[in-house]
Specification:
Layout (H helix, E strand, L loop, with lengths): L1 E7 L3 E8 L3 E7 L18 E7 L5 E10 L2 H5 L1 H17 L7 H16 L4 H15 L20 E3 L4 E3 L13 H12 L12 H19 L12
Parallel strand pairs: 3-5
Antiparallel strand pairs: 1-2, 2-3, 4-5, 6-7
Helix pairs in contact: 2-3, 2-4, 3-4, 4-5, 4-6, 5-6
Length: 234
């Protein structure tokens, strides 16, 4: 899966990829930015493709590419495209370099296919994806119990650096204090199956609160800004 790309020299591009067998990796595409390039749109971001790579000294080189899924509907719908871009950003920030990552890859494919289907609100897909991706990466936030002592919740405080919700005894300065409804949004997105994400209604304010918490968690564990999440329409 192509997560993003950036320029290299006058005609080449470096792709950031997520694969089943090698996790996140980077590869060079030669001549992709030339007029009449043979690559066409096969290596655009959010394209699922089978690639043949030649192992180079520093970066692998793409020698062949065949599109598996291009997700045309989500590209024509602005809300879906923003959510897909946020998912690709989160995958790029959180996925490990090298090594097998079949579960992370499957999560991204499932999320993009759900956006392509268009039957679930786009914001719910990208926010749920980030929570599920965090969990699959070993960073599942505590929502129903205290991250410090395990006491059943809900609890009034939340800290990305401490692992999620915190009871009054475990909370401290710098904690966030989301509304009860925002925590309900988080709990629903984290635990509902993909096809049931749109079954519950939440207020726009609660959705925005939950999104801010998700973005804070992604940024904390990746130690980098997650800008695309701020653009998703909720």
């Amino acid at each position: 899966m192509v997560l993003r790309g950036y320029r290299l020299g006058e005609a080449d591009r470096i792709l950031v990829l997520l694969s089943r067998g090698r996790g996140k990796l980077r590869a060079v595409v030669k001549g992709v930015r030339k007029a009449g390039s043979r690559w066409g749109g096969r290596l655009e971001p959010l394209v699922r493709a089978e690639l043949l790579l030649y192992q180079g000294r520093e970066l692998d080189v793409v020698t062949q590419a065949e599109v598996v899924e291009a997700f045309p509907r989500l590209r024509s719908d602005y809300a879906s495209f923003l959510s897909a871009s946020a998912m690709a950003e989160a995958a790029g920030l959180l996925a490990p370099e090298g090594g097998r990552a079949p579960r992370l890859y499957a999560l991204l494919v499932a999320g993009l296919e759900l956006l392509e289907d268009g039957k679930v609100p786009a914001w719910a897909v990208s926010d749920a994806f980030a929570l599920k991706f965090l969990a699959a990466s070993g960073f599942a936030p505590a929502i129903r119990s205290c991250a410090g002592c395990g006491r059943p919740g809900p609890h009034p405080a939340f800290s990305p650096s401490s692992g999620g919700s915190l009871c009054p005894r475990c909370s401290g300065p710098g904690c966030l204090h989301p509304s009860a409804e925002a925590l309900e949004v988080l709990d629903h997105l984290a635990h509902a199956p993909w096809n049931r994400l749109g079954e519950k209604e939440f207020s726009p304010d609660a959705r925005r609160e939950a999104a801010a918490l998700i973005r804070a968690m992604v940024e904390h564990f990746s130690e980098r800004p997650a800008r695309a999440f701020g653009m998703v329409a909720r």
